[in-house]
Amino acid sequence: MPQIKIFATYEELSDKASDAIVDCIRQKPDALLCFAAGDTPKLTLEMAVAKIRQQHIPTATLGFVGLDEWVGIGPENEGSCQYFFRKYWTDPLGLAESQFNFFNALSLRLDEECVRMDEFIRARAGIDLMLVGLGMNGHIGFNEPGTDWNLQAHVASLDSVTREVGQKYFREKTDVAKGISLGFGWLKAARRLLLLANGAKKAAIVKETLQGAISREVPASILQTLPEAEILLDLGAGALIQQKAGHEME
Ligand code: F6R
Fold it and tell me: DSSP 3-state assignment of 11?
Protein backbone atom coordinates (compact mmCIF):
# COMPACT_ATOMS: atom_id res chain seq x y z
CA MET A 1 0.00 0.00 0.00
CA PRO A 2 1.12 3.56 -0.61
CA GLN A 3 1.70 5.90 2.30
CA ILE A 4 -1.42 7.90 3.12
CA LYS A 5 -1.21 11.21 4.98
CA ILE A 6 -4.28 13.13 6.03
CA PHE A 7 -3.91 16.84 6.79
CA ALA A 8 -6.32 19.05 8.70
CA THR A 9 -6.57 21.58 5.88
CA TYR A 10 -5.94 22.07 2.16
CA GLU A 11 -3.35 24.70 3.12
CA GLU A 12 -1.36 22.21 5.21
CA LEU A 13 -1.57 19.59 2.47
CA SER A 14 -0.36 22.14 -0.09
CA ASP A 15 2.46 23.28 2.18
CA LYS A 16 3.70 19.70 2.50
CA ALA A 17 3.44 19.04 -1.23
CA SER A 18 5.29 22.27 -2.01
CA ASP A 19 8.09 21.15 0.34
CA ALA A 20 8.43 17.97 -1.75
CA ILE A 21 8.93 20.08 -4.87
CA VAL A 22 11.48 22.36 -3.19
CA ASP A 23 13.39 19.40 -1.68
CA CYS A 24 13.53 17.69 -5.06
CA ILE A 25 15.00 20.76 -6.77
CA ARG A 26 17.50 21.32 -3.94
CA GLN A 27 18.73 17.74 -4.14
CA LYS A 28 18.78 17.64 -7.92
CA PRO A 29 18.90 21.04 -9.65
CA ASP A 30 18.40 19.42 -13.06
CA ALA A 31 15.46 17.28 -11.94
CA LEU A 32 12.59 16.60 -14.32
CA LEU A 33 9.26 17.47 -12.73
CA CYS A 34 5.75 16.70 -13.93
CA PHE A 35 2.55 18.18 -12.51
CA ALA A 36 -1.14 17.90 -13.22
CA ALA A 37 -3.15 21.03 -13.92
CA GLY A 38 -6.51 21.65 -12.24
CA ASP A 39 -7.79 22.98 -8.95
CA THR A 40 -5.95 20.61 -6.62
CA PRO A 41 -2.30 21.63 -7.21
CA LYS A 42 -2.88 25.40 -7.52
CA LEU A 43 -1.92 26.35 -3.98
CA THR A 44 0.94 23.84 -3.93
CA LEU A 45 2.49 25.51 -6.96
CA GLU A 46 1.95 29.01 -5.59
CA MET A 47 3.63 27.97 -2.34
CA ALA A 48 6.47 26.22 -4.15
CA VAL A 49 7.18 29.26 -6.33
CA ALA A 50 7.20 31.51 -3.23
CA LYS A 51 9.62 29.20 -1.39
CA ILE A 52 11.92 28.89 -4.41
CA ARG A 53 12.08 32.68 -4.65
CA GLN A 54 12.53 33.28 -0.92
CA GLN A 55 15.25 30.67 -0.69
CA HIS A 56 16.93 31.76 -3.94
CA ILE A 57 16.91 28.23 -5.31
CA PRO A 58 18.33 28.15 -8.85
CA THR A 59 15.99 26.76 -11.51
CA ALA A 60 18.04 27.29 -14.66
CA THR A 61 18.71 23.59 -15.17
CA LEU A 62 15.32 22.29 -14.07
CA GLY A 63 13.12 20.37 -16.51
CA PHE A 64 9.34 20.24 -16.61
CA VAL A 65 6.65 18.37 -18.55
CA GLY A 66 2.91 18.94 -18.44
CA LEU A 67 0.96 15.81 -17.57
CA ASP A 68 -1.82 16.21 -20.12
CA GLU A 69 -3.91 18.38 -22.42
CA TRP A 70 -7.40 18.58 -23.89
CA VAL A 71 -7.23 17.62 -27.58
CA GLY A 72 -8.20 20.54 -29.82
CA ILE A 73 -7.66 23.20 -27.13
CA GLY A 74 -4.88 25.72 -27.67
CA PRO A 75 -2.59 27.28 -25.05
CA GLU A 76 -4.32 30.69 -25.21
CA ASN A 77 -7.52 29.11 -23.85
CA GLU A 78 -7.68 29.64 -20.07
CA GLY A 79 -9.09 26.16 -19.67
CA SER A 80 -6.10 24.49 -21.28
CA CYS A 81 -3.57 22.68 -19.14
CA GLN A 82 -0.75 24.58 -20.82
CA TYR A 83 -2.30 27.91 -19.79
CA PHE A 84 -2.31 26.63 -16.21
CA PHE A 85 1.28 25.30 -16.32
CA ARG A 86 2.56 28.58 -17.72
CA LYS A 87 0.56 30.70 -15.29
CA TYR A 88 1.40 28.80 -12.10
CA TRP A 89 4.82 27.37 -12.87
CA THR A 90 6.96 28.12 -15.90
CA ASP A 91 6.18 31.88 -16.16
CA PRO A 92 6.62 32.79 -12.47
CA LEU A 93 9.91 30.87 -12.39
CA GLY A 94 11.00 32.34 -15.72
CA LEU A 95 11.89 28.92 -17.15
CA ALA A 96 13.25 28.95 -20.72
CA GLU A 97 11.18 27.21 -23.42
CA SER A 98 13.98 24.66 -23.85
CA GLN A 99 13.49 23.54 -20.24
CA PHE A 100 9.95 22.27 -20.64
CA ASN A 101 7.65 20.37 -22.93
CA PHE A 102 3.89 20.55 -23.30
CA PHE A 103 1.63 18.51 -25.54
CA ASN A 104 0.54 20.53 -28.57
CA ALA A 105 -3.06 19.39 -28.61
CA LEU A 106 -3.76 21.34 -31.81
CA SER A 107 -1.35 19.16 -33.76
CA LEU A 108 -2.81 17.08 -36.57
CA ARG A 109 -0.23 14.42 -35.72
CA LEU A 110 -0.95 13.63 -32.10
CA ASP A 111 1.01 10.40 -32.42
CA GLU A 112 4.09 12.52 -33.12
CA GLU A 113 3.30 14.66 -30.08
CA CYS A 114 3.37 11.49 -28.00
CA VAL A 115 6.74 10.46 -29.43
CA ARG A 116 8.10 13.97 -28.84
CA MET A 117 6.97 13.86 -25.20
CA ASP A 118 8.34 10.35 -24.54
CA GLU A 119 11.67 11.34 -26.10
CA PHE A 120 11.89 14.55 -24.04
CA ILE A 121 11.41 12.50 -20.87
CA ARG A 122 13.86 9.80 -21.92
CA ALA A 123 16.48 12.41 -22.85
CA ARG A 124 16.24 13.68 -19.27
CA ALA A 125 16.50 10.13 -17.88
CA GLY A 126 12.92 9.92 -16.60
CA ILE A 127 10.75 11.88 -14.20
CA ASP A 128 12.09 12.67 -10.73
CA LEU A 129 8.90 13.99 -9.17
CA MET A 130 5.32 13.64 -10.34
CA LEU A 131 2.53 15.47 -8.59
CA VAL A 132 -0.91 14.40 -9.75
CA GLY A 133 -4.56 14.89 -8.89
CA LEU A 134 -7.49 12.49 -8.82
CA GLY A 135 -10.51 12.80 -11.10
CA MET A 136 -14.06 12.11 -9.93
CA ASN A 137 -13.99 8.88 -11.98
CA GLY A 138 -10.64 7.74 -10.59
CA HIS A 139 -8.57 9.03 -13.49
CA ILE A 140 -5.08 10.45 -13.21
CA GLY A 141 -4.11 12.70 -16.09
CA PHE A 142 -6.36 11.49 -18.88
CA ASN A 143 -5.91 7.85 -17.98
CA GLU A 144 -9.59 7.10 -18.15
CA PRO A 145 -11.53 4.06 -16.85
CA GLY A 146 -10.44 0.96 -18.77
CA THR A 147 -6.96 2.34 -19.49
CA ASP A 148 -3.93 0.14 -19.99
CA TRP A 149 -1.63 0.69 -16.99
CA ASN A 150 1.53 0.33 -19.08
CA LEU A 151 1.08 3.18 -21.53
CA GLN A 152 3.48 6.08 -21.92
CA ALA A 153 2.25 9.19 -23.77
CA HIS A 154 -1.02 8.44 -25.55
CA VAL A 155 -4.33 9.82 -26.77
CA ALA A 156 -7.47 8.78 -24.91
CA SER A 157 -11.21 9.12 -25.44
CA LEU A 158 -12.66 11.00 -22.51
CA ASP A 159 -15.20 9.49 -20.17
CA SER A 160 -18.56 11.32 -19.77
CA VAL A 161 -17.60 12.24 -16.18
CA THR A 162 -14.36 13.88 -17.33
CA ARG A 163 -16.17 15.79 -20.08
CA GLU A 164 -18.80 17.04 -17.66
CA VAL A 165 -16.52 17.88 -14.72
CA GLY A 166 -14.00 19.44 -17.12
CA GLN A 167 -16.46 22.22 -17.96
CA LYS A 168 -15.43 23.95 -14.74
CA TYR A 169 -12.12 24.98 -16.35
CA PHE A 170 -13.66 26.70 -19.37
CA ARG A 171 -15.41 30.07 -19.63
CA GLU A 172 -17.76 28.79 -22.32
CA LYS A 173 -19.32 25.38 -22.85
CA THR A 174 -16.56 23.37 -24.47
CA ASP A 175 -17.12 19.89 -25.76
CA VAL A 176 -13.87 17.97 -25.68
CA ALA A 177 -13.90 14.33 -26.69
CA LYS A 178 -10.24 13.39 -26.34
CA GLY A 179 -7.25 14.01 -24.17
CA ILE A 180 -3.50 13.52 -24.65
CA SER A 181 -1.70 12.35 -21.55
CA LEU A 182 1.26 10.67 -19.98
CA GLY A 183 0.28 7.12 -19.09
CA PHE A 184 0.84 4.98 -16.03
CA GLY A 185 4.03 3.63 -17.57
CA TRP A 186 5.61 6.99 -16.68
CA LEU A 187 3.80 7.27 -13.34
CA LYS A 188 5.08 3.89 -12.20
CA ALA A 189 8.61 4.80 -13.28
CA ALA A 190 8.68 8.20 -11.54
CA ARG A 191 11.29 8.38 -8.78
CA ARG A 192 8.76 10.05 -6.49
CA LEU A 193 5.00 10.09 -6.97
CA LEU A 194 2.58 12.24 -5.00
CA LEU A 195 -1.18 12.13 -5.45
CA LEU A 196 -3.12 14.99 -3.89
CA ALA A 197 -6.86 15.15 -3.23
CA ASN A 198 -8.84 17.67 -1.25
CA GLY A 199 -12.46 18.37 -0.45
CA ALA A 200 -15.39 16.18 0.59
CA LYS A 201 -16.48 15.69 -3.03
CA LYS A 202 -13.42 13.49 -3.54
CA ALA A 203 -14.04 11.32 -0.44
CA ALA A 204 -15.91 8.51 -2.23
CA ILE A 205 -13.47 8.16 -5.14
CA VAL A 206 -10.52 8.38 -2.74
CA LYS A 207 -11.95 5.46 -0.78
CA GLU A 208 -12.63 3.45 -3.94
CA THR A 209 -9.13 4.17 -5.22
CA LEU A 210 -7.32 3.19 -2.05
CA GLN A 211 -9.56 0.62 -0.43
CA GLY A 212 -11.68 -0.74 -3.29
CA ALA A 213 -10.79 -3.44 -5.80
CA ILE A 214 -7.72 -2.88 -7.96
CA SER A 215 -9.44 -2.45 -11.28
CA ARG A 216 -8.76 -0.69 -14.56
CA GLU A 217 -12.24 0.79 -14.16
CA VAL A 218 -10.76 2.90 -11.35
CA PRO A 219 -7.42 3.72 -12.99
CA ALA A 220 -5.82 5.24 -9.88
CA SER A 221 -6.43 2.00 -7.93
CA ILE A 222 -3.10 0.79 -9.37
CA LEU A 223 -1.54 3.00 -6.69
CA GLN A 224 -2.42 0.27 -4.19
CA THR A 225 0.43 -1.73 -5.75
CA LEU A 226 2.96 1.12 -5.46
CA PRO A 227 4.28 1.15 -1.88
CA GLU A 228 6.50 4.15 -2.54
CA ALA A 229 3.66 6.35 -3.77
CA GLU A 230 2.50 9.07 -1.36
CA ILE A 231 -1.13 10.08 -1.01
CA LEU A 232 -1.79 13.48 0.54
CA LEU A 233 -5.39 14.17 1.55
CA ASP A 234 -7.19 16.81 3.53
CA LEU A 235 -9.83 15.84 6.09
CA GLY A 236 -12.64 16.16 3.55
CA ALA A 237 -11.07 13.89 0.94
CA GLY A 238 -9.90 11.43 3.60
CA ALA A 239 -13.24 11.30 5.42
CA LEU A 240 -14.22 7.80 4.28
CA ILE A 241 -10.82 6.17 4.53
CA GLN A 242 -10.76 3.59 7.24
CA GLN A 243 -7.82 4.39 9.40
CA LYS A 244 -5.41 1.48 9.37
CA ALA A 245 -1.91 1.18 10.69
CA GLY A 246 0.31 3.16 8.36
CA HIS A 247 -2.12 5.98 7.70
CA GLU A 248 -0.61 8.97 9.31
CA MET A 249 -2.64 11.86 10.59
CA GLU A 250 -0.52 15.01 10.31
C1 F6R B 1 -5.34 17.75 -15.03
C2 F6R B 1 -5.37 16.31 -14.68
C3 F6R B 1 -6.59 15.73 -14.07
C4 F6R B 1 -6.89 16.34 -12.72
C5 F6R B 1 -8.11 15.70 -12.05
C6 F6R B 1 -8.51 16.46 -10.79
O7 F6R B 1 -4.12 18.07 -15.63
O8 F6R B 1 -4.42 15.62 -14.91
O9 F6R B 1 -6.41 14.35 -13.95
O10 F6R B 1 -5.77 16.19 -11.88
O11 F6R B 1 -9.18 15.69 -12.92
O12 F6R B 1 -8.88 17.77 -11.12
P13 F6R B 1 -9.08 18.89 -10.00
O14 F6R B 1 -7.77 19.09 -9.35
O15 F6R B 1 -9.53 20.11 -10.76
O16 F6R B 1 -10.11 18.37 -9.08
Answer: helix
**How far is Cα 231 from Cα 210, in angstroms, rounded to an integer?**
9
Quick one: which atom of ligand 1 is closest to the CA of 166? 11
Q: What residue type is 33 in one-letter code?
A: L
- Give phi and psi for 85, each to the nearest 5: -60, -40
Whole-number Å distance, alpha carbon 134 to ligand 1 midpoint, is: 6
Q: What is the mean pLDDT of residues 169-175?
A: 95
Question: Are residues 161 and 135 in contact, defined by beta-carbon separation less than 8 angstroms?
Answer: yes
What are the angstrom distances between the C-alpha of 147 and each of 25, 74, 87, 192? Answer: 31, 25, 30, 22
pLDDT confidence band for 245 (50 / 70 / 90): very low
Q: How far is the CA of 250 from the centre of ligand 1 (A)?
A: 24
pLDDT, residue 242, reads: 76
Across the beta sheet with 68-70, the strand order is 68-70, 178-181, 154-157
Give the mean model confidence (pLDDT) for residues 213-228: 98
Residue 33 has pLDDT above 50, yes or no: yes
